[in-house]
Amino acid sequence: MTKMLFLHISCGLGLVSAFWVAHNFYSLTLLQNPAKTLRTLWAVEASVVILLYSLFRRNPDQCSYLRAVLRGLLGLPTGAVVNALGAIVLGAPVGIQHFEKTIHWSLLMSVLTFVPAACVFGSCWSDWLRVFAHTEAIAACIDWIICIGAHGAVIGAWFGAWPMPLDWERPWQEWPICVTCGAIIGYLVGLIISFGFVVFHNQKQRVKGD
Amino acid sequence: MSSRRAFWRSENWGGWEWALAVFLGIMLLHSLAILLFTRGFLLTRSELSKYSQCEDISESPCFPPNHDQNANASCWTKPAVDRLVIIVLDAIRIDFVAPSAFFAEKKPWMDKLKVFHELASQNQSSARIFKAIADPPTTSLQRLKGLTTGGLPTFIDVGNSFGAPAIIEDNLIQQLVQNGKRVVMMGDDTWVQLFPHHFTTSYPFPSFNVKDLDTVDNGCITNLFPTLYKGDWDVLVAHFLGVDHAGHIFGVDSTPMIEKLEQYNELIKKVVGVLESQSGPGGLHENTMLLVMGDHGQTLNGDHGGGTAEEVETAMFAYSLKKPPTPLPAVDDNSSCQLDMHGKWICINSFYQLDFAATVSALLGLPFPFGSIGRVNSELFSLAGGTWNQDMSTSDDDQNPWKVESWLQNYVNVLCINSWQVKKYIDVYSSLSLIGFSEKDLLHVSEIYAQAQELWSITSKNFPLNKSQSSFASLPSVKRLINAYSRFLESVAALARSNWTEFNLKMMGMGFCIMLSSLYLHVYLIKRLDKLCGLPTCHSGYFRSFFGVHFPYIVVLIRAFSFLSNSFILEEGKVAGFLLATTAMLHLRDAIMKKMMLLEAIALSLLVPLLRIGIELGQLKQAVNSLFLKLDPSKTSGIDNNSQFWMYFAEVLPILALTVIAYLLYKSLACCSSQGILKYVIVGTLLNYLLIPIHWATDSSLLSVPMLLGGGNLIPRVTYAAGILQLSLVIGQIFVRKRSSNWEESTVVKALALLSSWSSTIIVLSGKQGPLVVIGLLIGGWCIIRLKTLGQNAENSCSGSSLSYALSMTQWSLLAVCVFFSSGHWCAFDGLRYAAAFVG
């Protein structure tokens, strides 16, 4: 229980502190320098996520902590490719001037969606399917956290794309900015919901146990 | 679909006739809704066929012109000019004419018409540049109508049929003819369509061919100069189209545009030279006025039609050959002045095109057109207005203040007549027209008019009726009167703008409500049908399947709400692509879950970005065109090898795509035989497909196929003819119903024949991207149909219900929208595809 709370809080704080680091140490903001800010964001958040989620790895007897971390590191670029492809299919601009921003954005998305699952499940395809496709058959708490967080980030990013075609001519309507904001807000909301689920789940089990 | 077919066969509910009645009823409801909506949306204005008459002036409270002094025909006002030369340069932007000092940045197309700058800075009192502000819609026909009638034409005026756009309202040209003036026209043949019987001489040239930059202009020039030396006309109209066409084809920032502007510079210089040479006392052009004007502006892409500043702001240049000895003061100073490149002051005034008809009528001494709601513009009026008193006052050097006052009184009188006529029009219009003005607005306007009229009756007692009297109204009181009249005219113009350029919300709301109710009826009928055919209704137990059922409705709702925002409409193609991609990705997820039909889902997902590239290419079309023009002369040698390959590739790719389509058609033909005529129809389409690449080959310069078939128009014409023939055959076949045993197959073949019979025409019309788009559509359609079964398997409980088709139907409509946009259309006037008009 406390472990879960710790996981949630540190994931949320990771993002916030990443913003703080970017702002205070490198004096970067998302508006003026999206690519570099995104780089800081994903670097900080990735270290937090990989180190923490690797603690919750499946089959901890057969798989060492180091290996889980390695899996997470491998999952990072793979997830980025998937996210980038998805974004392009949905209408992200393609072009050399957007290339860097797209890469950093998809790495961040990968940290929020792909990396936790990679750390926990590794390459076990059935586990992935169980969590992301058959969302009904979920048993463990960690599955809920991964599933809801990832869905929150993706749905948030999807909604974040809505203001892009409006003709308000604001700087934040540029390609990765409002989508990033949407994704982060969605992820944070997802964290809150998933914590609620965990509490609910625990209580139910306790009732059953009694 | 299958449920409906089952219902058709089941005949237990009244059978055929009843079903037909239901469909017809729904169609009727739909068309009623659309009709009501468009009535409110497309603005309408009644045209009154009343004409102003010379004698009407006696009804007005104002002073009629003095007949004893002016022997020549003067009607409502004292004529200030005898002859008028109007040169219309289509689609002239204000920054073509005004000096570049007026704009933040100097662009290559500025300062090309230097002749205006010279004239305006040398003759401050007799020449002036105006920034003319047009009212949307900024298309040539509507603008010419607005200029000559002095009203605000909408896209569809009541009483205007599409075939014969001749103006039936009172207008400037009509007044000219009515009062014995002779009008000569040359250039754009739109004028002849608008005024079929008015011109004594006309030299019309076809305006439709946008690619032709010179025919109209050269025709104009060859006729213009001989006519200028003749004395058998009073008003000359020359309409040049070169700039408009250059804009449509090449854009503003292009060499042809600059060449055109330089040509016009020389032309205007020559015209002014001719006029000045004849302007001595007793000469042909002693009291002539030259007006050079644009009918509307254009965007940088060369498009027009809308209401943006670029399209609305055009220019006018006025030059009176009889120079007034002293500059007259402007009544309301709205001019802005700047130093030009040679350090001389040039002033620019703004001028509403609405005022054109009234001002020109006042200058020529004609009755104002009955429907004119413009105001006589003081600056334009003053350019020639100073010429009245020249004959009368012999020693005028020390009588300057006298002259100013006299001019002002004259102007007040003209404004009085102007207001009287506008008031009369408003009264008549609101009594005759079905959709008039609101009571409150009318009352407000009447009050302002009454105030002004009261002031007039006080002030005008002091006016001198002729020169011998020397008592004057004081200057401030005259100015007050001018302000009162201006206020009245401005409020009328504002009222008319709001009434004729804003939508009728009540009508639109009614149409919308009927549309919604017809949709409800639809859903109700479908549910009823389902129940009747014994299909299980859906019970959405889980959140998941609930989401699955209702997701398409959510998508449709999102799309519907996106139409509420203007910017979403401009990006409609992208929004549709976004939603389509979302549904495709959900399908992909389903496919991964079930481990089936992965290929289709991936193909559908990949199709969307490809279509998006098409959309973006279409939007870039004109920019790319002008880019290539600039690159070509400099870099041809450098990129030769590389671009040669790409150009060949671009030539061959559509032909390959067409071959694939033809092969698919052939295969579908082979699999279901036995339908006599329809089979020949499809074979005919295949033959057409063979002809189309030949047409492209003869068109393209790369493959250099000799022109075998007598001009490039033969093949498209053959295709059109064959298409019409095939279509009529197919329709004939559909109505000759045969009781065939195999219902499904015959329906498929009929649909196929119907599609194929018009496909060839459409492919020819949409040019080389046509077949690529068709291939995209085919692949998309195939994927959607395949994936439909996937969705059905997912919800076994409600498979077969008509509502379970909702997702694939939504996808299909989104795909159709994407394809529409990726074939080079988009929702703006500039999105119209001009190229299609040149195929055959």
From TrEMBL, chain A:
Subcellular location, record wording: Endoplasmic reticulum membrane
Keywords, sorted A to Z: Endoplasmic reticulum, GPI-anchor biosynthesis, Membrane, Transmembrane, Transmembrane helix
Transmembrane segments: 37-56, 68-91, 103-125, 137-162, 174-200
Membrane topology: Multi-pass membrane protein
Pathway field: Glycolipid biosynthesis; glycosylphosphatidylinositol-anchor biosynthesis
Signal peptide: none
A GO term from the CC aspect: endoplasmic reticulum membrane
Keyword field contains Transmembrane helix: yes
InterPro entries: GPI_biosynthesis_protein_Pig-F
Pfam families associated with the record: PIG-F (PF06699)
Name of the protein described by the UniProt record: Phosphatidylinositol-glycan biosynthesis class F protein
UniProtKB/TrEMBL annotation, chain B:
Record-linked SUPFAM superfamilies: Alkaline phosphatase-like
Subcellular location: Endoplasmic reticulum membrane
Any single biological process term in GO: GPI anchor biosynthetic process
Cellular component terms per the entry's GO annotation: endoplasmic reticulum membrane
Example GO molecular function: transferase activity
Pfam family, one: Phosphodiest
Regions that span the bilayer: 20-42, 507-526, 546-564, 645-665, 677-698, 718-736
Keywords: Endoplasmic reticulum, Glycoprotein, GPI-anchor biosynthesis, Membrane, Transferase, Transmembrane, Transmembrane helix
CDD domains: GPI_EPT_3
Membrane topology term: Multi-pass membrane protein
UniProt pathway: Glycolipid biosynthesis; glycosylphosphatidylinositol-anchor biosynthesis
Tagged with keyword Membrane: yes
Family: Belongs to the PIGG/PIGN/PIGO family. PIGO subfamily.
Protein name: GPI ethanolamine phosphate transferase 3
Species whose genome carries this gene: Penstemon smallii
Lineage of producing organism: Eukaryota, Viridiplantae, Streptophyta, Embryophyta, Tracheophyta
